[in-house]
Amino acid sequence: MAKVEADLNSFEALLSGSADLTRLINSPVFSSEDQARAIAAVADKAGITGLAGNFLRVVAQNRRLFAVPGMIRAFRQIAAEARGETAAEVTSAHELTAAQQTELKAALKSVAGKDVAISVTVDPSLLGGLVVKMGSRQIDTSLKTKLNSLKLALKEVG
Question: For the whole model, what pTM was predicted?
């Protein structure tokens, strides 16, 4: 299971770093054969083999590549639950250091009551702070949200 998770994480990193790959999985213009060939080439080049490689090929052949990001998130959640962890999606305004990630995991563990596997993405538009999604809970400490709340409050006053 760890190999599959690592391979899917590799594919997700490739996807987030390539506008062309994102266009390939989202565009209905490409035929299933074109998508299957492209995904096979990307998987081979990235060393994504075995179960994860076969999974990506089958998804491409069935024209469901657009759903792969959601499938990866669902797999990550199931894998975390199997390990006795809970999953959290963290969006940060800047890259978190290893020490910050460790501190964040400890804080989330105290809230969740069990180990937390975090998936961190960077969104500079947040300006500062974090947005943490854990299960049905969302904690938004971003500066963008605080500024929007202040803007709304000022509109109500004036």
Answer: 0.66
65: DSSP letter: G
DSSP state of 141: -
> Per-residue pLDDT tens for 48-68?
989 999 999 999 999 999 999
Q: Pairing relation of β-strands 130-134 and 86-92?
A: antiparallel
**Looking at residue 113, what is its pLDDT?**
87
Query: Would you give the distance in Å from CA 119 to the centre of its chain?
Result: 6
Q: What is the dihedral of CA 107, 109, 115, 120, to 10 degrees?
A: -40
Q: How far apart are CA 136 and CA 2, in angstroms?
A: 25
Q: Which of 16, 43, 72 is the last residue of a domain?
A: 72
Q: Do 101 and 131 share a domain, yes or no? A: yes
pLDDT at position 158 is 63
Residue 30: DSSP 8-state: S
Give the angle 4-77-56 at the CA atoms, nearest 5°: 35
**Number of domains composing the chain:** 2
Does residue 157 surpass a pLDDT of 80? no
> How do 137-140 and 130-134 pair as beta strands?
antiparallel
Sign of CA dihedral 27, 48, 33, 67: negative
